């Protein structure tokens, strides 16, 4: 299964390389690093700057930003009423869910496999001097570090019981030294959605995007099937990952850290919460 994961990531980076080879600038920019060592130092610096930007961004929030945070938290709280019905429905279908898909979901969202795959992605971009692949990898790793730190602290601080504990969806034990009380948020979801969203942003073709997001959705779904997380664990983690990736991507673009064409028309993600609507809405 691990080799299948490596093959899948390798396929994605080759597609990125092929689909954008003609779009990359052919003129050499003397202000950008040219040797492999210089590029590695440059990318490391922007990875750290991106993480710092993500964590200090709340200091610059305005009323609308705090409103979106409130919607995220309020929407998550409202969705808790669906946790047990969804969990019961999924467990009733568990036997029909392909085991190979469940295994792939676990491997794809596991930190050791995840970072190994991204190391391969970055190494390919570094040694071929492909700026777009390097930027994609920097986006993935900086977003992963940010969401990873957030979910690690939150997971322990909240201490939500996993469904497999059979204790109900509202049982909590803060800073409990037990993995069965680390349900919220979902680490597998954070990593898989972060990578999928980072890679999908590099493509314009909606079918390619859909395929990438479909692969990225496998780990969250498999964690529900494995009874390791509640639906709200998955939903919150998905929104968190998208917000962080978009924030860091905008920072890299505004800072002109990497030089490659970017569409002006992008998807604008907005949180919606009303009496009959809860969700993350993408506006084209």
From TrEMBL:
Residues 1-21 form the signal peptide. Keywords: Signal. It comes from the Bacteria. Residues 140-244 form the Phosphatidic acid phosphatase type 2/haloperoxidase domain. This is Phosphatidic acid phosphatase type 2/haloperoxidase domain-containing protein. It comes from Winogradskyella haliclonae.
């Amino acid at each position: 299964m691990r080799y299948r994961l490596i093959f899948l990531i390798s396929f994605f980076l080759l597609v990125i390389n092929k689909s954008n080879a003609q779009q990359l600038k052919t003129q050499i920019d003397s202000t950008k690093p040219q040797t492999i060592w210089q590029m590695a130092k440059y990318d490391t610096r922007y990875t750290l700057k991106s993480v710092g930007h993500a964590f200090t961004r709340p200091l610059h929030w305005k009323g609308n930003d705090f409103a979106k945070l409130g919607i995220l938290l309020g929407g998550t709280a409202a969705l808790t009423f669906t946790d047990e019905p969804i969990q019961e429905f999924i467990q009733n279908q568990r036997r029909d869910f392909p085991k190979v898909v469940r295994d792939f979901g676990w491997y794809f969202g596991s930190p050791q496999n995840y970072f190994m795959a991204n190391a391969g992605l970055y190494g390919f971009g570094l040694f071929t001097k492909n700026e777009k692949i390097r930027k994609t990898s920097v986006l993935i790793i900086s977003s992963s570090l940010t969401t990873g730190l957030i979910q690690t602290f939150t997971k322990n601080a909240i201490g939500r019981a996993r469904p497999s504990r059979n204790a109900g969806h509202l049982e909590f034990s803060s800073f409990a030294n037990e993995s069965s009380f680390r349900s919220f948020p979902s680490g597998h979801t954070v990593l898989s959605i972060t990578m999928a969203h980072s890679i999908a942003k590099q493509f314009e073709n909606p079918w390619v995007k859909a395929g990438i997001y479909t692969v990225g959705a496998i780990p969250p779904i498999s964690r529900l099937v494995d009874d390791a997380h509640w639906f709200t664990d998955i939903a919150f983690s998905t929104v968190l990952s998208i917000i962080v990736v978009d924030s860091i991507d905008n920072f890299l673009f505004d800072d002109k850290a990497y030089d490659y064409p970017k569409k002006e028309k992008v998807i604008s993600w907005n949180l919606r919460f009303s009496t009959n609507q809860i969700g993350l809405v993408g506006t084209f």
